[in-house]
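Section: Multi-chain targets

For targets with more than one molecule, the full set of components is provided together so that the structure can be written out for the assembly as a whole rather than chain by chain. Components appear in the order listed by the source. The example entry contains two components.
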Amino acid sequence: MKEISKLLDFRPDIKVIDATLRDGGLVNDFYFTDEFVKELYKANLRAGVDYMEFGYKADREMFDENKFGPCKFCDDDYIRSIVGNNETDLKIAVMADVGRCNYKQDIRERSESPIDLIRVATYLHTIPTAVDMIEDAKNKGYEVSCNIMAISNAQESDMKVALDILGKSPVDVFYIVDSFGALYPEQIARIAALYGEYAAKYGKKVGIHAHNNQQLAFANTIEAVGDGVDWLDATYSAMGRGAGNCAMELLLGFLKNPKYNVYPVIQFIDTYMSALKKDGVVWGYDLQYLMTGLLNQHPRTAIQFTKENRSDYAEFYKEIIAQD
Amino acid sequence: MKEISKLLDFRPDIKVIDATLRDGGLVNDFYFTDEFVKELYKANLRAGVDYMEFGYKADREMFDENKFGPCKFCDDDYIRSIVGNNETDLKIAVMADVGRCNYKQDIRERSESPIDLIRVATYLHTIPTAVDMIEDAKNKGYEVSCNIMAISNAQESDMKVALDILGKSPVDVFYIVDSFGALYPEQIARIAALYGEYAAKYGKKVGIHAHNNQQLAFANTIEAVGDGVDWLDATYSAMGRGAGNCAMELLLGFLKNPKYNVYPVIQFIDTYMSALKKDGVVWGYDLQYLMTGLLNQHPRTAIQFTKENRSDYAEFYKEIIAQD
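Its structure, encoded as tokens over all components, is:
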């Protein structure tokens, strides 16, 4: 019988990445106040979180600065205004999407930046550009991870080719990303075995970023822990696009490394996440997300359903079944 | 690698039990309208659910009839008013709690009753009474299952003794019950192996009833499916005490037996469960339930927190840590 994480012990290689500002920002256009971001930073420090993702390095040619908060662009100066010189154990991450990031220009040398980790996000069909971004970031001195998105409807043979290409790149971490919230723990186990094979071959680490469409984001994350996955994404109150992510409060409750502490997470939620919800920011598990997850579809129709304040679930199910 | 349920295939021995009225009734004192119950019955029929639990056989000496809806007592006449002679494949279940049920008097001969299955619920320290109830129900002609509650803080050696006693009784199904929502999938796997050992020895089946304190009710249920557990409890919209149960809509989406159909469940939720929520009936995952689950405590303090409309999570955490 598999022992997930040897429940009463811990694996020191585990890293916890707080993706609240980045994935959460997708539901409020990154309009977080400076106070929110500063207090989140302090909460992460006290909670023992390993990396805090500040948002995206989005291309200003594509995205209008007036329509998004600063975490959409993650300028070095903005991050410095929050973390100063960040003389702490908490590392700073940003995401750079293939095709939506002017990386050669907007990502400076690490020696000049408060950022430690560049998280390149790619689809399978854009791997060569992802590799160029990885090399660019690595040459500038960063740690680099790579998210391969939407793998729940990818062919395994394509995934193998992608992992082999990435294996030969200087990336540090391969990320399993269940973009549609469609995967069950059994499938996570299989995918983790596949990623693990290439990670072992090329000396990389494996991470996971889960979505909660079927209330499995936490379950899939701890399944992955048991399968040798070390880098774990989570967000406060599971804030994230659509059904949201693996909840930080669940994950830190589960992990037994004494460096992690769930209480600062609860305090932050109590004050700041509850306030966001009261202000009308909407995310989290609901029937429309279960449906797109079940059908292994992109959640965009479910997000639209949410935005329109619809609650006619049965009608929505018919709509998405019809277009499946 | 374990293949949970052989994902693309199905195991015909699986039985799905709708516990909405019984566990859900704990949050609204069983005040379901006849229309609600009738439509739920029809939805279960169309969804291919195997058993519908109507509620408790509660002792009228202990519980005031004027303070609860009819599903608290599940008189044969009441059930007949909903299902007639129930000439369908959907079987009818009720729960009988050790110490809260006048079973000798209130449970009639099966030949005179619309009920098919008596679900005896017991703690470890009341097993002898549970056995008496099992024998009584079996002698009256019923199928009988037995829930051993609150096992997450039980000693394995005590569980073995209990399973051995129950194995020698005429009960048909042993139920794994995670009353506190404290168990992780890895622990479910271990417990399922233990129950499975005694089930094999004595020719019994194994079931699971999960709670969603850590958003693992569905994950633990499908973990159990992969471990040979055949009887699966679920409720519409996960309605149940505290953090609720495994959601029927998630479970039927997962199970591949063509007899199951998720659409009637979605339709019922759309019309009836949404209305319950709008009427102010409260259940489901929230931080206070995560905390009691994490600490392996009875959820009563969290239920009280919910009843008082509190949202000071950090203060609550301090309270329950202090009394732990």
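DSSP finds 13 helices and eight strands in chain B.
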